[in-house]
């Protein structure tokens, strides 16, 4: 990333809203992020959204949750997240969120923004609710169970002493 424009600091964000599109097994996930002068749609994997949310929930005792503010309709910049880091800043009771991704033109970008913990807790709660509405997980092999059935690799007859609860 030689281009200085591709290192972006969006500053303090006003709104983070988790979104999902499609049916379980075919869903796509994103976070709509509204910062002071930017409106961003960050596309990510379900597992990435779950990790972000689980890390935010660790700091729930530091604040009371407040409802999310729905973002205003503005021109949206799209990024597909590749990797991220989340840092809790105790003195300000906020999170610094860093991500590396690609834009619509497949150009690399590294960006950061901050978000207050009281709103982050609500975001995490809503994200985990969205994630849990997907396909159920097999308790034996930890793979998703589709509506048309599931082939469990641990029920193939080669593993002894399996107890299905």
Strand content: 35-45%
Backbone CA Rg: 19 Å
Instruction: State the end-to-end CA separation.
Output: 51 Å
Give the helix proportion (percent range).
10-25%
User: What oligomeric state best describes the polypeptide chains here?
Assistant: single chain
Structural class: alpha/beta
Average per-residue pLDDT, rounded, comes to 85
With strands numbered from the N-terminus, the spatial order across the biggest sheet is: 1-2-3-4-5-6
- Tally the structural domains: 2
**How many DSSP H or I helices?**
2
Say how many strands there are: 6
Order of helices and strands: EEEHEEEH
Low-confidence stretches: 161-165
* Biggest beta sheet attributes: 6 strands, mixed, barrel
Instruction: Sum up the overall morphology in one term.
Output: globular
């Amino acid at each position: 990333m030689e281009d200085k424009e591709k290192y972006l600091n969006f500053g303090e964000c006003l709104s983070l809203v988790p979104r999902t599109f499609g049916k379980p097994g075919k869903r796509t996930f994103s976070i709509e992020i509204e910062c002071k002068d930017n409106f961003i749609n960050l596309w990510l994997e379900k597992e990435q959204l779950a990790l972000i949310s689980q890390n935010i929930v660790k700091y729930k005792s530091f604040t009371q949750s407040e409802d999310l503010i729905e973002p205003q309709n503005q021109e949206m910049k799209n990024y597909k997240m590749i990797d991220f880091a989340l840092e809790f800043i105790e003195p300000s009771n906020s999170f610094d969120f860093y991500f590396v991704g690609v834009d619509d033109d497949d150009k690399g970008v590294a960006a950061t923004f901050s978000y207050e913990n009281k709103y982050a807790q609500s975001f995490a709660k809503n994200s985990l609710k969205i994630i849990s509405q997907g396909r159920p997980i097999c308790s034996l092999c930890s793979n998703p169970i589709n509506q048309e059935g599931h082939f469990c690799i641990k029920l193939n007859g080669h593993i002894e002493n399996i107890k299905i609860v």
